[in-house]
Amino acid sequence: MSKPPLRIGIVGYGFMGRAHSNAFRQAPKFFDLPYEPVLKAACARNEEKIKKFAENWGWESYETDWRKLIERDDIDLIDIAAPNNVHHDIAIAAAEAGKMVLCEKPLAMNVAEGEAMVAAVEKAGVPNMVWFNYRRVPAISLAKQLVDENRIGRPFHYRATYLQDWTIAEDVPQGGATLWRLDANVAGSGVTGDLLAHSIDTAMWLNGPIRRVCAKTETFVKERVHAETGEKMPVKIDDACMFLAVFENGAIGTFESTRYARGRKNYNTFELNGADGSVFFDLEDPHILQFYEYKNPTTGRKVEDHLTGWRRIHVTNFEHPYMDHWWVPGCTIGYEHTFTNAFADFVIGLKDGGKGTEPTFRTALETQKVCDAVLLSARENRWVDIA
User: Fold this and answer.
1) DSSP code of 302?
2) 140-175 burial: b if 16+ Cβ within 10 Å, else e
3) Three-class DSSP category at 40
4) Is the pLDDT of residue 248 over 90?
5) What residue spans define the domains of the chain?
6) Whole-angstrom Cα distance, residue 120 to residue 98?
7) Which pLDDT score, from 0 to 100, does residue 15 have?
8) Distance from the Cα of residue 48 to its chain's centroid
9) Number of other residues whose CB lies within 10 A of the CB of residue 9
10) Architecture in CATH of 136-356+366-380
11) Contact between residue 25 and residue 85 where contact means Cβ atoms under 8 Å apart
12) How many whole angstroms separate alpha carbon 7 and alpha carbon 75?
C-alpha cells in the first residue's frame, strides 16, 4: 500500500542543501516513515547552478524565486538551507502559506527575528524543526540517555570547544556564495552563530537552560576583500569567542570557539561532570562516547575502586540510539547520517498530528537568546542575564 506523499521544496544548493537532499532521499530507505518524501522543487537565484543541483539530486523541478516556490500548491514543506539573512522572510512566508518549515541553524540573525519566526509558525500551527543535527549523533543521544537515567547525578561543570582553522590566511575573502559566513550582513555573527550555536543547543539539551554569560570575542584579521565587489572592507564577524556560563541548575560552564586553531578541522567536544559520573564526546571520534561512572544510579553503590576508570563506549550496537536502523554492530555511521536521523524523526513525528519535532523554532529561539547575550556581553564587557 502506497504512503501519502510529503512534497518538499528546498531553498539553497550549497553544503547544507546537499546534506538535506541526501537526508530526504535516504530516510525512507532506512526508516519506516508514515509519509513518502517527494523532492518536488529546489530553489536558488542562480538558474544555472540550481538547475544542475536539481538534476544531480533528483529534484523534479526548480525555481529561481523562493516566493514562487512557496506559492506552489504541490509543495507541503519548505526547507530553508540558505544563508542566515533570509531565514526570517522565508520562514514567515512559508508558515503564512500553511507550509511545514524546516530551517538551518542558527534560527535567525538575532532574537527579534527569531521571535517573529516562532510567532508565525505557532500562529499557523505548522510543524517545524531547526536542523541542530548533532543531537542525532548516536553517541550524543546516548549521552542524553545517560543524563536522563541520572547516571551523572548533580551536575557541576560543563565545558565545550568548537575549533576550526579555515580562515587563518589573511587573503581569504569574505562574502559571496562560498564565504558568506565571513560577511556579517549575511551571517549575522561569526563563530558564535555558526559554531557555538551547536555547542549551546547541545549543552542546554543535556544540562538545561543557561541563565548568565560573560564573553570575550576577537576578530584577528580586521579587513578582507569582498568576494563580489573586490573592495577591501572591515571584517565585522567574530573569529573567536570564549564565554563563561551559569546554568539554571547551578552548574558552571566554559565555551570556546575559533576558526584560528591551526590543525583543528571540526573539533567539537563537550564534557559534563557530575557527582555520580561524567561524559565526554569528540565529533572527530564520533562513534565513541567516553563515560566515567562513580556511583550506580539503581543501587546507589559506589563503583568498586579496582573497576573505576573511563569507558570508551563504541556506539554502534542495536540498543544504541538510531543504530538499529543502520548497519551491524561495529560498523560506524557518519556526519551525513545525522541529517537522515533528524529528518526521519520529523516525519515520524507527523504521524500523530504533531506540530513539530525537537528542536522546534521555539527551542532554537532559546539558543538564539544565548548567542545574542554572548555578543552583547563581549561588546559591553560585562555579565549578561538571559531572560
Assistant:
1) B
2) bbbbeebbeeebbbebeebbbbbbbbebeeeeebbb
3) strand
4) yes
5) 5-134, 136-356+366-380
6) 10
7) 95
8) 29
9) 26
10) 2-Layer Sandwich (3.30)
11) no
12) 5
Judge whether 244 and 213 are in contact, CB under 8 Å.
yes
Place of cell 562516547: 289
What distances in angstroms separate CA 178 from CA 124, 175, 215, 339, 371, one per listed residue? 34, 7, 28, 21, 23
* Residue 244 CB partners (closer than 8 Å, separation 6+): 213, 214, 215, 252, 253, 254, 255
Tell me the pLDDT tens digit for each residue of 124-165.
Answer: 999 999 999 999 999 999 999 999 999 999 999 999 999 999
Pairing of strands 61-63, 36-43: parallel
Percent of the chain with pLDDT over 70: 100
pTM above 0.90, yes or no: yes
Residues 6+ apart with CB under 8 A from 381: none
Is residue 1 very low, low, confident or very high in pLDDT (cuts 50, 70, 90)? low
Tell me the C-alpha distance between 382 and 380, whole Å. 6
User: In CATH terms, is domain 5-134 a member of 3.40.50.720?
Assistant: yes
Q: Would the CATH topology of 5-134 be identical to that of 136-356+366-380?
A: no
Separation of alpha carbons 326 and 171, rounded Å: 43
Q: What is the pLDDT of residues 331-365, one digit of tens each?
A: 999 999 999 999 999 999 998 777 789 999 999 99
78-81 long-range contacts (CB < 8 A, ≥24 apart) are 78/9, 78/10, 78/11, 78/102, 79/8, 79/9, 79/10, 79/11, 79/20, 79/103, 80/11, 80/12, 80/104, 81/10, 81/11, 81/12, 81/13, 81/14, 81/16, 81/17, 81/19, 81/20
Q: Which H or E run includes 6? A: strand 5-11
pLDDT at 308: 86
